[in-house]
Amino acid sequence: QFTSKACECECDNQGRIQLPGILKDEAKLVKNCVIVGAIEHVEIWNEDLWKEYEAMADESFEDIAESLTEYL
After folding, report:
1. How many CA atoms lie less than 13 Å away from 19 in the CB half-sphere?
2. Residue 2: which residues within 8 A CB-CB, separation 6 or more?
3. 71: which DSSP letter?
4. Which of 35, 45, 46, 61 is the one with CA 20 to 30 A from 6?
5. What torsion do the CA atoms of 53, 32, 41, 63 make, to the nearest 10 degrees?
6. What is the pLDDT of residue 26?
7. In this predicted structure, what is the pLDDT of residue 14?
8. Are 45 and 32 in contact (CB under 8 A)?
């Protein structure tokens, strides 16, 4: 559901990404953020939410990695 609201954004003359207000509100972007590379795109996260997500993902990393070995 979160990625269903994704959009292409333009950069201004100083190279800043112009995010629509609705996306800033949805992602709770107020001050500090994290830019995460995700293959062919980037994701911009609220720093605290990213840390929570990363901790949760770290807990299940081995299970996820093991399940991917069936595709090798």
Report:
1. 17
2. 26
3. G
4. 61
5. -10
6. 86
7. 95
8. no
Would you say 9 and 29 are in contact if contact means Cβ atoms under 8 Å apart?
A: no
Write down the pLDDT at residue 13. 94
H or E, element range at 65: helix 47-68
- Give residue 7's identity as a one-letter amino acid code: C
DSSP output for 7-63: ----B-TTS-B---HHHHHHTT-SS-EEEEEETTEEEEEEHHHHHHHHHHHHHHHHH
